[in-house]
Each structure stands twice: as C-alpha cells, then as structure tokens.
Amino acid sequence: MKHTAVYWLFRMGMFLFGALPARVARRLGEIGALAFMIGARGRRAMVMKHGSRLGFHGRELKRHRRRVFAAYGRYWGEALWMRPRRRPEVESQLVVEGLDLVREAMAEGKGIVFAVPHMGNWEFAGPVASQIGLELWAVAENLANRRIREWFVSLRNQLDIGIILATGRALGPLRVRIVLALFTSLSVSFACAIFRFDGCLPDSLCTNKQGEEQEQL
After folding, report:
1. For the whole model, what pTM was predicted?
2. What is the greatest pairwise CA distance in the chain?
3. 3-class state of residue 60 by DSSP
4. How far apart are CA 19 and CA 45, in angstroms?
C-alpha cells in the first residue's frame, strides 16, 4: 500500500511539473528540496560532515549544504519534467566537452567504463552518446518500489540509456562491447557508494531499452 501511494505521488508530480516551463520546474524542485532540508536533520548533518572534509567551514559550509540540497531538487524537477517530446529541447541546450577522448577510446574497438560522480541530471548523457554512436548502459539502484523502479528505467530508456539493476550479484564476464556508466549515489540519504569493476557486472538482471528482461547482456 505504501509503495502504491508513493508511486501515485510521483505520477502527480510528473503531471504538475510536466505542465511547467523547464526553468520553473527546476526552481520549484530547488524550493522543495530546501524545504525538505529543514526537517532532514540526519541528512543535513551528513552533508555538513562531507562538506567539512572538502575544506568548507562556518558560513561557507552552510552555503555548501544549501547548494547540495538545491542541486538535488533541480535533479528531481528535471526528472519529473522530462518527456520524450522534449528531447530536442534538451539536446539543443547541451554543451559537451572532451568527446575527442571518447572517440579515441571508441576507435580502439573495446568497451568503455565511465566511473563518475552522480552530479546533475546525468541521464542527459544518453542523447549525446546516441549522436556519436555509443550504446550506453548504466548501473542503477534496484529500488524496492517496483513501480517507481520501472518508471526510472522507462525514463532512461527514452534517453537511449539501457539500465542494469544492481542486486549485488555478478552476471559473469562482460563479453560485449558497451559503454558502462557507474555512478556514486545521488541520494543524500547515503554517506557514500563504492563500485568495484573487475570484468563482471554487479547484477543478475538486465533491462534493455524496450524494457524487456533478459538474463545476460
């Protein structure tokens, strides 16, 4: 029952945010996250702790905390706003740097692993990868809420990103040439996330771009 209620809250959010211009959806996401921050004592403390490790102190540390939650809210605002028909609008605003390095790696004829921090709306990398002929897959959290998990998979599929749900079990040797993205955790509810890549994928279930389940790549 709880999972169903949360799912319909997401659907309501998609309806409301989807009716807004992108800049308004982003701003509303920021405001919502900053309001959430007020009551999220444990998560505030975690962000402050990490900020102090980066050298922030005093007022600057508080500003850093505010920026972290605002960025989290912008992500959700964009995710709830995104629709397939808006893909051209998103692509027209993307600025990409360093593609020459990616093309050099592609020319070697091997798969590529991007191990990057989860910053901003990383799903927008999908259209870029598609434009230059990359088949992009990403490892994602295997959320307990099935309906929300399927929604996230569908959203990323629409942006040409295949999803591998992380269950903690290895698929076996990676035999195909793909581009795999591994991300540290987005959610401010986690202190950190560490991925290890040793030729195996950390999952036993893959979902392709049409949403069909398959046992291996």
Report:
1. 0.69
2. 51
3. helix
4. 34
- The residue among 168, 178, 80 whose CA lies nearest residue 123 is 80
Residue 175 confidence (pLDDT): 46
Token representation of residue 106? 């592609």
Token couple for 83: 């629709």
Residue-level pLDDT at 118: 66
Beta carbons of 203 and 166 less than 8 angstroms apart: yes
CA-based nearest residue to 90, from 80, 101, 78, 99: 78
Q: What are phi and psi of 164, to 5 degrees?
A: -110, 115
Coil/strand/helix, residue 166: strand
CA gap 184, 123 in Å, rounded: 14
Nearby residues of 212 by Cβ (< 8 Å), 6 or more positions away: none
**β-bridge mates for residue 200, sequence order:** 173
Provide CB contacts within 8 A for 63, sequence distance 6+: 56
The tokens describing 105, both together, are 């790696």
Q: Across the 217 residues of the chain, what is the mean pLDDT of every consecutive 10-residue run?
A: 85 92 94 93 90 91 92 90 85 84 84 73 82 84 88 87 76 50 47 36 35 35
Collect all residues with Cβ–Cβ distance below 8 Å to 28 and sequence separation of at least 6.
17, 20, 77
* DSSP secondary structure letters along 167-216: -S----B--S--EEEEE----TT-S------SSB-S-SEEE-TTS-EES-
What are the residues whose beta carbons fall under 8 Å from the beta carbon of 173, sequence distance 6 or more? 199, 200
